[in-house]
Amino acid sequence: MSQTIIEHVLMRLKELGLKDVFGVPGDYSFGISDAICEDPELRWLGCSNELNAAFAADGYARIKGFAVLATTFGVGELIALAGIAGSYTEHLPVFHLVGMPNLKTQREHRIVHHTLGNGEFDLFVKMTQPAVCASAILTPENAAAEMERLINAAVNHRRPVYLAIPADYAKAPLLGAGAVAPAPAPASDPGALEAVVNAIAEKLAQAETAAILAGYLIPRLGLSSEALALVEATGLPFATMFMDKTALDESHPQYIGMYDGRLMNPEIREFIEGCDCVLNLGALWSDLNTGAFTANLDPGRMIEVRHHFVRVGRALFPKVEMRDVLAALAGKVTKKNVPAPKVQGLGEPRGAPNSQITPDYLYPRWEKFFKPGDLVIAETGTVSMGLAFARMPPGSVFLNQTLWASMGWATPAAFGAAVAAPQRRTILITGEGSHQFTVQEISQLCRYGLKPIVFCLNNQGYLIERLLCKDPLSCYNDIAQWHYHQFPGVFGCSDWFTARVTTNAELDSAMEKAETAGTGAYIEVVTDKMAASPMALKLHEAVQTLYGTQ
Ligand SMILES: Cc1ncc(C[n+]2csc(CCOP(=O)(O)OP(=O)(O)O)c2C)c(N)n1
Ligand SMILES: [Mg+2]
To answer: Which ligand 1 atom sits closest to the C-alpha of 467?
Structure first.
């Protein structure tokens, strides 16, 4: 029997390492979901809704390198689209498989469910196009070639791709698979590579003082060991920005801390901005990555290594791959000894045992709680802005959706990350307003036997918004008050340790119990309405540079 379209799609994805698929089924996508469930090498991970499934796939892709999401036509795929757009923004390859109505329905322009009722079937692929790097509607004739094109796009651009399969085609035999060879990965132009490596090495050699910014593209492109080898070959101090936290290990002796423009860590800003040369390995010059655009680096002194090109000062070098640049440069540079600031952690928690929990206690206490190897998933809001300045222990990873910055990302992303690395301790830290978006995904964690530690910061509303808007007490930043610590029981995680804490001593005790419970744990941390982390307070003072209004 010849291979069906869906068997071929899954076979190629398995060859890339696919093990798990996140999704929500629907009648048009039964062919896809059936094939996944019938495949003994694959696992279907059902989510509560498609937004959660897309965010879970995003979290999974951050650990495993790529992820697969399966949804139904129209209703399902559009709900997933907000999550897919996040993966596009944050450079994560997610394959989105969508089951469409069958071809007869489409040809006859029938009025069917999950459409706008106008007989048009290509509307949703059009809506999706700006948020993916390639898309295709598969047929028996084009499936083999289109699959190679989509894989190539996802691998080379590290962005989502969209594959729709009409319901009657999922199990149709594939035509002409053998004739299609996988497309080669893009390679650097040898002349351009030599020229850029010489230019960088020369600029570094001429600089008396230099530093490295380790950017988010390092983990996204799977280049941690190449980047580390280069950093060690240069001997230069390295810093990270918000989106790039833990791009390289924060316990490394050359790590100096977080650079956040004028907002935080003045000694790091002074050092970085005073260097003759800054080698930026894939960090982005975005609002929240640059301390609301207060980072002030002379472009003439900067070397910027991106995925497919490099800028040395104002000169652009196209056709060079980051992987090749890192490897070639590591063999070319000479070691430098540049005196730099020493990395600082958050220090000791400050506050009396029976006092109400304040940021002075909470963030240093979290820093102490983290262990080597932890996966920490921090939500958009004041909480990630406080945690970003904690020093992470060896081998631990800090995940945050800094650029897309969607509320609700962290809870399902923590589920996806925990599925990707069940042997590691997963710690979700979320504000309660964001948690309200996607809280049901707590239930998938226990359903699939995962034992995370969840902290829900309850500050009675949207604190970051209170700090950025005209009137902190505006009613639109108030939210319904839920009994957060009761969620695990409601969501079927009855054996989890749960607590609601309001004082420092209660927080300590709950953390100790969570560590030894042997089950999942959920701790609701109650603070004052206006108890903000230092970076969030600084952002409040920097609204003019943040929004470009000065
Ligand atoms: C989908 C989406 N809608 C709206 C926003 C705007 N927004 C950003 S943070 C935030 C409030 C976050 O509140 P919470 O999670 O409670 O964190 P806090 O700042 O209170 O610690 C809002 C409304 C957003 N980022 N994403
Ligand atoms: Mg809040």
So the answer is: 19
